[in-house]
Batch of 2 targets.
Target 1
Amino acid sequence: MRLISSIEAVRRETLLMALERKRVGFVPTMGSLHDGHRSLIERAVKDNHFVIASIFVNPLQFGDGEDLDSYPRSIKKDKQIAEKAGVDILFVPEVKDMYPSEITTKVVVSKLSQLWEGASREGHFDGVSTVVTKLFGIVGPCTAYFGEKDFQQLQIIRQMVVDLNLPVKVVGAPTVREADSLAMSSRNIYLSSEERLAAPILRVALDEGLNLVRLGERDPLVVMALMKQIVESEPLAVLDYVAAVNAHNLQIPKMLHAEIRLLVAALIGKTRLLDNDGLTLTE
Ligand code: AMP
């Protein structure tokens, strides 16, 4: 595995790959790698001739008062994990190279990016879609792997790739969880031991919501009320939102049908956690 920080050097490599007609897999991350990231890399290794993973804590997607400065960074451990998982190039650009001057072009995926996470974190998804467009511009034609853990982000990237005709195939991969079902996240290390015990309440709310749908409930508001009640039963949790939505446009439908997704976000102590799960209704 080679560690490369130069944008031009990565471009040269991917141009060579294209000339040799090699399939390139790309896994963008913010580092502090865990088994969720590892699963994306392993999938990319399985599907492609050559795999690039990037680590870039993107200032553009953090709002004022968010954790940009304290975001966990562990490049030494990340290198080991990436190499073991089969990454060929670990691309770790510097902020000064990604944003040499104030950025004047932004990519905004309207509608989808205003909802849920977008409503709670203003400008967040504009930062995400802009940096992912830049990374796609650097890496070039590839298959890019994103986690369903950040389901809204995944749908936004899918929409962006279609809207802008980007030469990228987007693959979504399932959420990897801890033994007690908490979705793995780089931010989980912020949780105190007491908070860590409370955190799986998000998954409980999703499970109970999905069960209610499986039992025949089709009113999204009833499902959301149950999920809300469950999260609020945990004294350490402060609910941000629950939603039962159409998996494509992420809007709450009148009646649940076809592909649906349940979303939940809550503060556990000072740590904001999110989770989601879905199913396909056939009748
Ligand atoms: P991040 O480093 O948090 O920006 O995440 C980089 C990529 O890893 C994104 O596509 C995330 O959705 C994905 N990811 C993060 N956590 C998980 C998880 N627990 N399971 C699967 N994918 C994940």
Target 2
Amino acid sequence: MARLDPHSYNDDTQPETESLTWKARVDFNTRRLHAEATLSLKESSAGPLDLDTRDLEIRAVVDGEGKPLPFLLSPPEPILGSRLRVELKPGTKQVTVRYRTSPQASALQWLTPAQTAGGEYPYLFSQCQAIHARSVVPLQDTPRIRIRYRAELTVSKELKAVMGAGFAGREEQGVEAVERYEMPQPIPPYLLAFAVGRLAAKELGPRSRVWAEPEVLERAAEEFEDVDSMLRAAEALFGTYDWERFDLLTMPPSFPYGGMENPRLTFLTPTLLAGDKSLVSVVAHELAHSWTGNLVTNASAEHFWLNEGFTVFAERRIVEALYGTDVAMLHAALGRRALEEATHHFRAHPQLTALRTHLTGVDPDEAFSQVPYEKGYLLLRALEDAVGRPAFDGFLKRYLEAHRFQALTTEQFTAFVEKELPGALAKVDADAYLNKPGIPAGAPVPRSERLERMTKLKGRVPTAEDVKDWTPAEWQLYIEWLPKGTSRDVFRQMDERFHLTKSQNSEVLVAWLAAALKAGWEPALGRTEAFLGEVGRMKYLKPLYGALSATPEGKVLARSLFNRYAERYHPIAQAAVESILNRA
Ligand code: BES
Ligand code: ZN
């Protein structure tokens, strides 16, 4: 017996799930899904089948003939949830679990009409990565086991249900509608995804449309109109797109991430709607996951960098192809700052700043940081620099081709690199990236003309002339490069000249507010308070609650804001802010 994934009860001696049939009725009144999940197993074998669950109420477990199977639901363990052990009989190939979810299901956020753009209908969405699928469906919740699925969601007739899957039809019966979806490509369970709300769609290209509440649809369609050229650029770099469609769903502001690469239907925060396409690299990132992550998948959260480091690398290649090297380098410089910040943040847990992590007893949401993204990016850049771009591009294509629809460990990655690019790992000292803390001394440094110009401005307040051709990325970088201890007077001058507290670009705004709060620039406070009530994206909540918590009075304010706003946030974001406030 071996449990290969520290975040799952799955035991590799037990049969694996081949496919899932999932039926759920969405009940906004009780905030529950009343559901039935049928797991079809690859092989039959008598004995225990251990499934992951969290906060599920199990009603019954039956086999393919409808005969009850004995089961035991263990008390919940921290992080993992409750093991559901089903006793299979000889020949059992199908297990059906009837259950309902908890109103507190960690993957789900139930929004009241007031929390939506339209204000009239409720909204529900899932966020399963890394280990929240088990709060929605009892299954083997490890990316080592991929499943195909069919799903039927029953919703009230005024609402639309969408899934990260192929649409298979909608039937209306009385006041209800049944929406059917099919996912023919096998996916890791963390990519199971759905949303229910008052949704409308607009076509963006032959393979893409954008979904959103009608009130935001036009803005979203304009912001994301270049998605088809992104798709084509990505295919030129990484090979054919395997998922048929690449649709986008613009989420309500409480969506806890910038984007989530749900297959065929990327979920995006509405904070990307800056009006000038300046934040669409997030779309490039989620698109890139169609290869790195969704096709070639980390074997567990301990190898998360294989998903995110590769995807940041791929994202910047797409950005370079569409917007030029200078823009990609600006993003790399921002990434470098984020990495320095993250290594500082984890100074008490340096082992979490190695790419290959050891996470037994550690919640993946707690271990989450920019390290797998940006240190992973640097390792791949170092390898590219070492062997040259043509050789590295060839390697990338072979890497993707060789591991399609498979899960991979860091150790399998290094073995593959050693075979394909002999000596390259040693040349870049890959061990320093993979197994040692911090930023390796010889790591690639982003360089470009625009960056040169930015560097010269360090240490002074820019003039109108300096900033006349700045994009939001330059503003953000200037702010993030401000040294610790920059005086309040500098913030006052900057705000008088450039009105940064009023910025409409969420990245610039949050960089500004976090720095200004730390410097004690009071006008930032009001904007921060309002913003924390509007947006639930963790990338913004964490630095802002963190900056507030730096002083004793700020701590009191942060706590009272959180008490006021917590119920607007997704359960995952609530837990993240909670842990910041408890630490502070
Ligand atoms: N897959 C991630 C989001 C995620 C990671 C969800 C871990 C749950 C657990 C997604 O692809 C992502 O990385 N989003 C980034 C944007 C990106 C441009 C770096 C984000 O949300 O900020
Ligand atoms: Zn990602």
